[in-house]
Design goal:
- Among the domains are: about 5-30; about 35-140 and about 175-210 and about 310-364, no CATH class.
- Helices cover about 45% and strands about 15% of the residues.
- The protein is built from 13 helices and 15 strands.
- The protein has helices at about 5-30, 60-80, 90-100, 115-130, 145-150, 160-165, 215-235, 235-245, 250-260, 265-275, 285-290, 325-330, 355-360; strands at about 50, 55, 85-90, 110-115, 135, 140-145, 160, 180, 185-190, 200-210, 285, 300, 305-310, 315-320, 345-350.
- Strands 3, 4, 5, 8, 10, 11 and 12 form a seven-stranded mixed sheet that branches. It has a two-stranded antiparallel ribbon with strand order 1-2.
- The termini are far apart.
- Residues about 30-35 have low confidence and may be disordered.
Length: about 375
């Protein structure tokens, strides 16, 4: 008669060998797809609230930061694979320089690339970004205004209502940059939508030449870029100005023809035009603010001639070598701590945006 203990030992050994095999398979899958490594912790004491600079940083906020650092690492993986250079930007750079991490009340991440690197990223990223990450390119949307104008669009694209276009015209996706999102999460900005991926994200901005320029040809290119952006994102405004007889550099007939294209085609044309007409300049920045708000900051192009690395929570971020000169432009005495409100109304690192849409009373 077989010894019951021996049979149990054999069963345990078999289960142990199975577990080891599963671990090997799982490890191989995670190495092939870093996005599957979902349990990495990048924020110290993530499960505890703490005070930073007189501000209560909750565990809830730390979980948001943790997802955002995961997105940074995925973005960095793609950039390193394709030898693309990028920089911490805006409040993220300020946090790295002043706090060695997030500004305590911050809730978003900004990174930037000079337009040539941004263009390369825009081209290769669709093949690189896999679930649970999501590449949210500003022009991959269908506008209700296009539908009402009888412009044929791709119904599979994410939808932007006419209400948002009219009441919130200076919010994504009506701004020309890319977001990288985590589809397992939820992030509700001031823009309230009922469809589309609303996972936690990082913003990826292109840096383009901004005035003052050295010659008339560069000024002409810049004027055309502004007109194209307005015709892409604010067609009613441009049509009204054309009807009122306002002079444009672009041919009025061609401009009207351009505005009859679907939003996605207009956006792709604009990005292609920006990439093809990039030129060295003394000042750089985001054309979106210059064009759409009239309030803009330019930065010395020389500040971005090289990279230095700065500690940021538990990782290192690439920063422009001239970060001090850069930070003085928007913040003045950037060492001085000034409280400001974040962008987000609510978020979850545990609930996917799809679940939020399905169950939230705010979405009904």
């Amino acid at each position: 008669m077989e010894n019951p203990n021996q049979a149990l030992i054999q069963q345990n050994n078999f289960l142990a060998s199975q577990n080891k095999l599963l671990e090997q398979i799982n490890g191989m899958l995670m190495r092939q797809n870093p996005a599957l490594q979902s349990n990495e912790i990048f924020i110290e004491n993530i499960d505890r609230d703490e005070m930073r600079n007189g501000f209560l940083v909750t565990s809830h906020r730390k979980k948001l930061w943790n997802v955002q650092i995961g997105l940074i690492k995925e973005f960095d993986r793609i950039c390193k694979k394709h030898n693309l250079r990028w920089f911490a930007y805006g409040g993220t750079l300020l946090g790295a320089a002043r706090h060695k991490g997030f500004i305590p009340w911050d809730d978003d991440v900004d990174v930037c690339m000079l337009r040539p690197e941004y263009e390369k990223f825009r081209q290769i990223a669709p093949d690189e970004v896999k679930y649970p990450y999501f590449l949210d390119i500003w022009y991959n949307y269908r506008l209700e205004s296009d539908d009402k104008a009888g412009i044929k669009t791709d119904n599979s694209l994410q939808f932007i209502s006419l209400e948002q276009e009219q009441q919130q015209p200076l919010y994504p996706p009506l701004l020309p940059f890319i977001k990288l999102r985590d589809s397992r999460t939820f992030y509700y900005e001031t823009v309230q939508r009922k469809s589309g991926n609303m996972g936690i994200f990082i913003d990826i901005f292109p840096l383009d030449p901004l005035p003052p320029f050295e010659d008339d040809q560069q000024n002409m290119k810049f004027t055309i870029e502004k007109e194209l952006l307005l015709a892409t994102t604010h067609t009613d405004f441009v049509k009204k100005q054309l009807d009122e007889g306002k002079k444009f550099v672009l041919n009025p007939k061609e401009l009207r023809k351009f505005m009859k294209l679907p939003y996605r085609q207009r956006g792709m044309y604009f990005d292609n035009f920006m990439a093809e007409n990039f030129f060295p300049s003394k000042r750089i920045g985001g054309i979106k603010h210059h064009c759409l708000t009239g309030k803009f900051t330019t930065y010395p192009a020389d500040s971005f001639r090289d990279i230095i690395y700065m500690p940021f929570e538990t990782i290192q971020l690439p920063a422009p070598i001239g970060y001090d000169e850069y930070l003085k432009e928007p913040y003045g005495d950037w060492h001085k701590i000034v409280f400001s409100r974040g962008h987000c109304i609510e978020w979850s690192a545990d609930i996917a945006y799809t679940e939020y849409y399905r169950t939230s009373a705010f979405m009904r």
